Amino acid sequence: MSMLYSLKDNCEQALRRDDIKAIVITGERGKFSGGFDISAFGKIQDKSIEAPRPGFVSLEILSDVVAAAKKPFVAAVDGLALGGGLEVAMACHARVSTPYAQLGLPELQLGIIPGFGGTQALPRLVGITKALEMMLTSKPVKGEEALSLGLVDAVVASPSELISTARRWALDILDSKRPWIISYHKTEKLEPLGEAREILKFARVQTRKRAPNLKHPLVCIDVVEEGIVSGSRAGLWKEAEAFQALLQSDTCKSLVHIFFAQRSTTKVPGVTDLGLKPRSIKKVAILGGGLMGSGIATALILSGYPVILKEVSDKFLQSGIGRVKANLQSRVKKGQMNQEKFEKTISLLKGALDYGSFGDVDIVIEAVIEDINLKQNIFSDLEKFCPPHCILATNTSTIDLNLIGEKTKSQDRIIGAHFFSPAHVMPLLEIVRTQKTSPQAIIDLLDIGKKIKKTPVVVGNCTGFAVNRIFFPYTQAALLLVDRGTDVYHIDRAVTNFGMPMGPFRLCDLVGFGVAIATGGQYILNFPERTYKSMLIPLLQEDKRSGEATKRGFYIYDEKRKASPDPEIKKYIQKAREISGVAVDPKLTKLSDKEIVEIVFFPVVNEACRVLSEGIAIKAADLDIASVMGMGFPPYRGGVMFWADSLGSKYIYSKLDELSKSYGDFFKPCSYLAQQAAKGAPLSSSVAPAPAKARL
Ligand SMILES: C[C@H](O)CC(=O)SCCNC(=O)CCNC(=O)[C@H](O)C(C)(C)COP(=O)(O)OP(=O)(O)OC[C@H]1O[C@@H](n2cnc3c(N)ncnc32)[C@H](O)[C@@H]1OP(=O)(O)O
């Protein structure tokens, strides 16, 4: 906040001083500004600091001091100019940037709208369509594009020329050699009113479709409209008031939590605080060219890692390489990659049918089928053929790492690198450590994760690790409901309306029942007391309905992969009930959406509590990130634990307790949840790590 006051003081002082003719605003160390201090949001929300009065920055400083100044202001932009940073730059009379500068208004991803005049200045500089696109997607533009859009006035070839060019530009404005432009008064880029209204209407329709649960993108559109219809001064007022109101919203609180939670996943006590440096990884080997292996290979070569892809036969190898090529081709088709980059990237991939070229690999990632014996043999081979420093990683999604490494003496370099399918697209990387995994191996994998642009979450070793373990009860609860009378499609609708990308049954179809049954087997083995055994999936599977790949599962699929409900499903449900001896419960046939969401997600919360209290997850915020990035839990609800805390541990405990009395131990609240509820404490309070022997 003090930064804003000093900006005002410095500007006013510069305007008073006779020896200053013009002002250049720039940033330090190659960065203009990342915007308003997001950590202050929480302090404003809990009232430990006072929010600046509405309009203090946008009207009193940027509009009335900077834009209205009698001396020219020019922004010299290098590196990032985001949010409030870009808004300061847009208040200036011109902007000069470097080619690599990134300019954007990403406030919407924090649940707010630009609050320092951005909703008014940006449409006037780049037109309404582009301004809305930049704000609604939160995506920045680079120097050259900013120049072609009119967001900056000049791009210098190198950062060394930035300040001198900006100074010259400011003096040229003073000497009337260049125009003196007040962004808020510019109108020529604004589309005529009728057209503007059409653009805004279209944007509203799209926004409602894309984010039906979110209000703030619509508020942003309203505020832009106010400026177009009633002038930028009115727009600035409306923006200031809306900004203050949105700052207090649950959506903003949740998204700010996600922002910091995402950045805190790389801070692992006892690992990242030891002063270790990541070792250089020059060569990676991947075992298995299936869906996962080829996705991982794609992610790695896209970030410049040379990769050897090993398969058991030439046929499998060629199809693995083919999959990687197809992944890259899809980028070429979307215009995200040119042919030259394609050739360069694919040249980093080499195929292998034996371990001959493994003598100098720095990390191996095993991605073969989930077969314990096979994995054990592979790891003992790896120990023979790879150098002693080589990290031995497995992409298993459920199997205990201690079992996988049982036949080796390399337990310190065995680690889990659990990617999510499709691995080159999904942002999460679950890094699994055992009691023996060395901190250096974790540091190296964290570094690879950062380079391939994944968000890593470091977790302990157990069946299902963190993500799969907490989401297993999700499908289980849904099956329990269906067995007792709730409609399959109502469950999927309720869960999708809540904000998940798809409901549990549509997800099952997508993943395929083979995987669901295999994972289920692991759970029955390891957590028998809380695994719900429905016959529905095995019955469907028996009838060759295995999900989307077979065009039939809980839904039926047309040629374009469009899913439609299938009335036939009732037949299977009836049969499943008969086999299990389960009766329809009339209460469960008419549940509200809210009740469905609670019954499906509270067991997820319960399992997340176990994962946390057993020390599998380091902190609750990691589970929030795991749920958002691994399963698509809506980020604007803050992740599974944050959402649970917004409802309260007491409430969740009482609901689960009630459900367990009617429907069994599947719902039984775990001791950590019971203990937090008894204290009335949040579930995300820090927990003392479980004793080492409790961890696998
Ligand atoms: C009124 C206005 O309209 C309101 C606003 O301006 S809201 C703010 C708008 N700005 C943003 O949303 C930008 C948010 N920041 C980012 O997107 C990214 O941090 C970035 C692109 C600036 C840099 O990314 P990257 O180089 O990967 O570094 P990253 O790890 O994210 O950030 C470095 C550190 O700066 C912190 N940080 C970055 N931007 C911050 C901000 N605006 N406020 C507070 N802290 C910030 C991060 O939390 C992180 O802290 P840590 O080292 O303690 O974990």
Automatic annotation (TrEMBL):
Does the keyword Amino-acid biosynthesis feature in the UniProt annotation? no
InterPro entries for the chain: 3-OHacyl-CoA_DH_CS, 3-OHacyl-CoA_DH_NAD-bd, 3HC_DH_C, 6-PGluconate_DH-like_C_sf, ClpP/crotonase-like_dom_sf, Enoyl-CoA_hyd/isom_CS, Enoyl-CoA_hydra/iso, NAD(P)-bd_dom_sf
What positions does the domain 3-hydroxyacyl-CoA dehydrogenase NAD binding occupy? Answer: 283-461
Q: Which CDD domains does UniProt cross-reference here?
A: crotonase-like
* Gene3D superfamilies recorded: 1.10.1040.50, 2-enoyl-CoA Hydratase, Chain A, domain 1, NAD(P)-binding Rossmann-like Domain
Start and end residues of each 3-hydroxyacyl-CoA dehydrogenase C-terminal domain: 464-557
Q: Known SUPFAM superfamilies for this protein?
A: 6-phosphogluconate dehydrogenase C-terminal domain-like (SSF48179), ClpP/crotonase (SSF52096), NAD(P)-binding Rossmann-fold domains (SSF51735)
Q: Mention one GO biological process in which this protein takes part, according to its record.
A: fatty acid beta-oxidation
| Keywords of the record | Fatty acid metabolism, Isomerase, Lipid metabolism, Lyase, Multifunctional enzyme, NAD, Oxidoreductase, Peroxisome
Pathway field of the UniProt record reads:
Lipid metabolism; fatty acid beta-oxidation
What does the record give as the reaction this protein catalyses? a (3Z)-enoyl-CoA = a 4-saturated (2E)-enoyl-CoA; a (3E)-enoyl-CoA = a 4-saturated (2E)-enoyl-CoA; a 4-saturated-(3S)-3-hydroxyacyl-CoA = a (3E)-enoyl-CoA + H2O; (3S)-3-hydroxybutanoyl-CoA = (3R)-3-hydroxybutanoyl-CoA
Can you supply one Gene Ontology CC term for this chain's record?
peroxisome
Which top-rank group of organisms is this from? Answer: Eukaryota
Q: Name one GO molecular function term.
A: delta(3)-delta(2)-enoyl-CoA isomerase activity
Annotated compartments: Peroxisome
Similarity comment text for this entry = In the N-terminal section; belongs to the enoyl-CoA hydratase/isomerase family.
Q: Which PANTHER family match?
A: 3-HYDROXYACYL-COA DEHYROGENASE (PTHR23309), PEROXISOMAL FATTY ACID BETA-OXIDATION MULTIFUNCTIONAL PROTEIN MFP2 (PTHR23309:SF9)
Q: What is this protein called?
A: Uncharacterized protein
This chain's source organism reads Genlisea aurea
